[in-house]
Amino acid sequence: MNFGNYKINNPDSFETPEYLIFEDVLEHNLKTVLEMIKDSSRLIPHAKTHKSKEILNLQISRGIKRHKTSTLEELETLAECSPDELILAYPISSKIKAERLGKIVKKFSHIKFSAIIGTVYHLDLLSSIEGLDGVYIDLDTGMHRTGIDVNESDPLLEKLFNSSNIKFKGIHAYDGHLVGNTEIEEKHEIVNESINIIEKFREKISKFSSDTNYDIIVGGSWSFQYYLDKTDYKVSPGTWIYWDSNNIRQPDLNFEVAGLILGQVIDEDKIRNTVTVDIGAKSISCDPPTPERFTLEGKPNAKLLSQNEEHGVIELNGENLKVGDYILGSPGHACTVPPKYPHALKINSIGEISGKITTDARDRK
């Protein structure tokens, strides 16, 4: 059975909702990102999207050997794949987490572990961790979520370079405020503003240290392509590996959605011209606005009206669906789907199940 450009043989053999990863699309995305960046050492992708040892090993086999994570569970689980470096790109703010990070660093002593800091408080907590390779300063370039403002950075720089034994590894600058922006010229302008902030910060750092041999890690899946001309910058997209129906709105990127949800129509309302499907909030990303939580492949006019735990109500708008029909939903936010499932089923190019991709870092031990 075809769902737009996707083929699934015998969908009635699946117990829906089911998370599916299409192998040929996954390979396309991997090939695309490497063609764009050219030098795999410039790519430091975020593992929060996939949380999978299999996917991490696939990237390592293609020369992508440095990765970011958000949680300690991701850090510890993915360390089993022995990448060159794992960066905890989330501030450590409690003693108990600092202690756990220290245990992970000790357990996998052959791997370089790094963390981000945005305050003296973060720096003090990390100072007790023996074996930590170093820290990246988290710089706020406009998102205003985490990170330090250039104009408020003197106390942190003073302590880091003059009274701390922790190694400074570079600058981390995520510009999530570009998410959802499809205007290319406007995005260029915002990225140029971020670059100006980064360069201003580099100049300030030079007043505290003469060392210029450090990394600058920038961008996300909505912006990394605009930093590629800055050849001394590393780029850090995450969603590219699975992509989603929100990201696919970017006209200048050639990634395709690899991870989708197979569901089924379970009821219908002919008076209101709607159907109810079994893709509820427990099954797919529920952080975008309701109509953007998923779209249906091959049914472009269908629109999600409402969603509960186990149900989604779809307005057909001229599309034809009836009770018992199978549907394929493209998530609005790929990163929040894997934690909902213990694994995804792999689908090969002829529509057959070819294995499983385990969401290894799904749960806290």
Describe this structure in words.
The protein is an alpha/beta fold and 365 residues long. The chain folds into two domains: 125 residues, D-serine dehydratase-like domain (Lyase, Ornithine Decarboxylase, Chain A, domain 1, Beta Barrel); 193 residues, TIM Barrel. 22% of the residues lie in helices and 23% in strands. It is built from seven helices and 18 strands. Strands 3, 11, 12, 13, 14, 15, 16, 17 and 18 form a nine-stranded mixed β-sheet that branches. A seven-stranded parallel β-sheet has the order 4-5-6-7-8-9-10, with helices on one face. The longest helix is centred in the middle third of the chain and has 22 residues. The two termini are 39 Å apart. 42% of the residues are buried.
User: For this entry, what is the oligomeric state of its chains?
Assistant: single chain
What is the CATH fold-level name of the largest domain?
TIM Barrel
The overall average pLDDT, rounded, is 97
State the order of secondary-structure elements, H for helix, E for strand. Answer: EEEHHEHEHEHEHEHEEEEEEEEEE
CATH architecture of the largest domain: Alpha-Beta Barrel
State the distance separating the first and last CA atoms.
39 Å
CATH C-level class of the largest domain is Alpha Beta
Q: In CATH, what is the homologous superfamily of the largest domain?
A: Alanine racemase
